[in-house]
TrEMBL record:
The keyword Signal applies. InterPro entries: TPR-like_helical_dom_sf. Transmembrane segments: none annotated. It comes from Hymenobacter armeniacus. This is Tetratricopeptide repeat protein. Gene3D superfamilies: Tetratricopeptide repeat domain (1.25.40.10).
Amino acid sequence: MKINILLAAMGAVLGAGTARAQTALLPDTLEYARAKAYGKDFGEADRILTLYNARTSRLDGLRLQAQVLYWAQDFKRAAAVHEQALAAFPSVPALRLDYARLLVEQNQLDRAKDQLAVYETQDSARAESGLLLALISYKQLRLDAARKSLAAVLRRYPGNAAATALLQDIGNTTLPYFRVGSRYLHDDQPLRALTYEAEATLFRSWLVAPTVQLQANSFSLPDDRSASYWLQVGNKFTFLPLGLTVSTTGGLFQYSQNSGGSLATGNLLLTKTLGSTLALDVQAARQPYQAVLASARQPVMERLQALAVRYTKGDKWLGKAGVEQRSYGDDNPAYSTYAWLLAPVLTRPTVVLKAGYAFSYASAERSTYTPTRSLSDVVLNGGPVPGAYVPYFTPRHQLVNAMLLSLKLWPQKKVSVAARGSYGVQGRADAPYLYLDKALNNELYLATGFARQDYHPVEVQGEVALKASPSLTVAATYGYSSLIFYNRHAFDLQFRYHLNREKNR
């Protein structure tokens, strides 16, 4: 949802209204504080305004400090200053509108509705209150109420851009959504794969939001070909009073060579909001694993258990930290832990640049690195003993520290360009190797050893997206990965289509 964009647009309107409402020059103290705020020295502006508002109770001083604290993202203190201003000036409608906007952005929707209810009795002529009420209803999944509020705004202000955009966003959320695409990837194992995907989603209510996905894979191996098919059906349940969403998915997975029939898959994801910036994800899944040559030849099912905390602040700061356990039915679980954070570097209407840092650690109980030459061949002919991971990859004390970069551009209204990448400034792992050894009874065997390997993993992805129509978006993506056991190139082409309500009337 484009909620934060809409809030920013409403904030700009409110700010312009505030400037026009000033009928007299502010004292030098306020001018100084305002200059500091415009220069992004929010700490100094807040210090001056705290002293100023402690000596006198003026509407302009309190509103300016609330705005400064909002810009500084100190939302708790901004709310406290709003409360102070409302206690001193309860009959000023603009104060309630300011405060309601802050509360909506912090997802304190019921408190925002209370403020707007009072505001409507004082001044119902402005579009901002109707937009905020519609936004609250949208967030609470009361879509008919949201449309009703927007219709009232558009009757009074025909062509209002924010109302029109929110109405379109509601349509995109509730009307059927289709996605079809293909992906081609190849790596130096060597493995080549061509994937076709189709997905359809529909939103009806907090209880009914189904999704259907179909995936077909064709693998080209050094000495063979294989294919697999995966059908999934799921639904998303949203419990707003609890701040909880539950996504459930069940499916069937089939290898073309598997005469044993289809294999059941499933996924359960619980997401709990923890305040305005944090969310907790708990996941359990049974899913196909198809990342190495052996897993493209025979069915390998992966059990995933994951726990993660996500951080989002104003669509600018993004982060995540979590732990995962992956197992494959052979008492050899692989564990991993990770954390990453992206911070804004440059934010403009046509460009957003973020940079950050990532850490990850992964290891398994034992290695699945298996010789690809037989013992007799090595004994008779000598030479090195090559190997491959069978039937899945196992990390061993794999540690990576990486720098992150994310860039998004809008060179034209209907075109967006996105790129992201990571570079491992430090990467190390215990890499397996195989050698011929002799047991105490003089019997020869192929043994596995480990040697510390330093490397610099690299991952890069770029995307160009074209909004061909209000309903259709076409996106082309290229990705490159240089990891510890393969280098991979991937090419994607996606078509995303939202059914247009107007075309079906």
